[in-house]
Every structure is written in C-alpha cells, then in structure tokens.
Automatic annotation (TrEMBL):
Family: Belongs to the flavin monoamine oxidase family.
Protein name: Amine oxidase domain-containing protein
Location of the Amine oxidase domain: 3-71, 96-344
InterPro entries: Amino_oxidase, FAD/NAD-bd_sf, Flavin_MAO
Pfam families in the record: Amino_oxidase (PF01593)
Length: 355
C-alpha cells in the first residue's frame, strides 16, 4: 500500500492487486464479532519504536494518527514450569524500550495510507498467477489463473519472497541465484500464532502487574498488555508451541490451554474473558508456504534479493523481508517501499522512459 502511495504522489499510475479480501496483509486489527464498541485488537504487528524507527514515526505524524505508549507499569510474571508457581519480578528501570501503539490498531495506518490513493486502484480478491515479458517491452500479469491479463511497464512485488517464488510463474524463469535468494528469506510471523484475551477492564493493573509475562510452561511463551487507551482490557500472547503442534491440538483445545495459563499467571479473573481472538499465520495461504512451518532459530538475513540482473529491471521486490534494516518490522516494510520506488524511478529516468 505504501508503495502505491509513493508512486501516486509522483504522478505515476499504478494498480494494487491484493489476493485477500481486505487490505493490510499481515496487519490484522480485528473486532470482537458483534461488539465493535470494544475496539480493535492487533493479531499482526502491534507497535513500533520511535527512537529507532524513523520512517514509520514520520509517516504516522504526517498522517495525523493518534498514538499511545505501550503499558509497562508494574511487575512482570515469569512461569518456569508447571511444578512451581509463577513468580513476580520488578524489571530495572529502562530494561524495556518504550514502544508506541496506534489508536484503533495498526489497521488505522493502513487505512490512512489507502485514503491517499486515487479511487479505484485497489483490486481485492485478485491473486497474481504469472508475470511474463512480451515482445514490446511490457509485462503481462495474469491473475486468478488467467481470468484477467494486465499490462504494465514494471511490477513491484510486495508479497513475502517465498510466496512469490512458490506461487508466481515467471516467464522467462527467474535466475537460479535470485530464486535461491527468495527462498532463503523466511517469512516473518509465518510460523507463529497470536491470541488476544479481551476483558471488561485491565484488572491486572489493579494488582500492580504490567501484563508482561514469560513462560516456559506454555502454550504462550510471551504475553503483553494489549488494552486500548480506555475502556476494556486485553492481553495478547505469542505461542511457544510449533505450528505442527498447534494443528494437532486444534483451536478448541488451544484456547482451553490458553485460559488455564492466563489464570495461573494473572489469577481467577483471567478466566472471565469477553472474547478470545486467535490467528494462526502458519495456515494462512496468503502468508506462509511449506518452508515457513519451521520456527525461526536466529534472526533472518534479510535485505534486497540478489541476482536481480535479469528481467531488465522490470521487476522489483519490496516487503519487510527485503529491508536491509528492521526486516520483519513495519519500519522495514516502509523502508523497502521507499527503496523499490527509488530504484524504479532511477531505472526509468536513466533510460528516458515513461511509466
């Protein structure tokens, strides 16, 4: 979406082809069904760090979006095993970098960017099947298995690199080193799942707890306060169990284990949820491929794909996995959009071409 906004700002016509029925990709700010009054809760990226992430900080300011600090006041809770009770600790001052959240969820940023685009350029439920060169220097983008063909001077691919390598046919084929480079970039979040427990109020704060917890007993490995600015309370957790294990357990069993763990960590009130929101990114076909089922052991070596000499600079790759810094973060996604648009402009200007 950011790529399209940058192109549009330069007067370059473009179209956004989105496979999902919504915009945002791995940004997912979800409401409780039937209770929009409770607000939206992020099942994808949740926060950013202004001290280090200047692209998103500047864009949020430019778009006039409201922000608030991630709640971190109080004790953290640690659960080492089922055999011993959870322990509470006071973190040293400054132990956690202050993170910032967006009022209305990260979807507020996506929607604000989309509002800057010309009307009608976003095409939902449109999956790119192939990208081909034709004889006149243009590209032919085939969507939904051939239901439509779109012609363009250039394509900026913003889906995760592995998804592009596995799901899009390129004619001519991508160079072997480029294909290897794409497949060697693990999709951020693709092996993970996230759950949000929504409550009438953030009761843990009344107990002097920050909502931050870590666990070696599971199923959640790390938990944070996900409450909106005012009103209801919420806790979100990242899972420590693998995608394969989550599939074996099934959602109903997983939610039962989550509730039991939250009660152990935060007391009986944690059992009185208004809702449990769950998203397993590993079974989302618009996010993950087979290789992504394995959890990341180390921070990936992200950055622009190598081997881009082919295709005469008609294909460009953006997305957070292609960012040389802050890969995996919203900041990385925004920086990659800026880089891709800059590379595209430089190429066509140097060749005295017109988009």
């Amino acid at each position: 979406m950011r790529t399209a906004s940058l192109l549009s700002a330069k007067g370059i016509p473009c179209r956004v082809l989105e496979a999902r029925d919504r915009i945002g990709g791995r940004v997912l700010s979800q409401e409780v069904i039937g209770r929009p009054d409770l607000g939206k809760f992020d099942l994808g990226p949740t926060w950013f760090w202004p001290r280090y992430e200047h692209a998103i900080t500047g864009l949020v300011h430019e778009l006039g979006l409201k922000t608030f600090l991630q709640y971190q006041t109080g004790l953290m809770v640690t659960e080492r095993s089922h055999k011993e009770p959870p322990q509470q600790y006071a973190l040293p001052e400054g132990a956690m970098e202050s993170a910032v959240r967006l009022a209305g969820g990260v979807q507020a940023l996506v929607d604000a960017i989309a509002a800057t685009l010309p009307e009608g350029i976003i095409q939902l439920n449109t999956r790119v099947s192939s990208v081909s060169e034709n004889g006149d220097g243009n590209l032919v983008i085939e969507v939904d298995g051939g239901k439509e063909e779109i012609r363009a001077r250039a394509v900026i691919i913003t889906v995760p690199p592995r998804l592009a390598a596995r799901n899009i046919i390129f004619r001519p084929e991508l160079a072997p080193d480029l294909m290897i480079s794409l497949l060697n970039k693990p999709t951020w979040m693709a092996s993970h799942a996230k759950v949000i427990a929504v409550y009438k109020r953030p009761f843990w704060r009344e107990q002097g707890l920050s909502g931050f917890a870590t666990s070696w007993a599971g199923p959640l490995q790390e938990i944070h306060d996900a409450s909106p600015v005012t009103g209801v309370g919420a806790l979100f957790g990242f899972f420590g169990i693998s995608a394969k294990r989550r599939e074996e357990l099934g959602e109903e069993r997983i939610m039962k284990l989550v509730k039991e763990q939250l009660i152990r960590l935060f007391g009986p009130l944690a059992g009185h949820t208004l809702a449990l929101l769950y998203k397993d990114w590993s079974n989302d076909p618009a996010t993950a491929v087979t290789e992504d089922a394995q959890p990341l052991q180390d921070y990936p070596n992200y950055g622009p794909p190598v081997g881009m000499q082919s295709w005469d600079k008609k294909i460009f790759f953006a997305g957070t996995e292609t960012a040389p810094t802050q890969g995996g973060h919203l900041e990385g996604a925004l920086r990659s959009a800026e880089r891709a648009v800059s590379e595209l402009m430089e190429h066509f200007q140097s060749n005295e071409s017109h988009l």
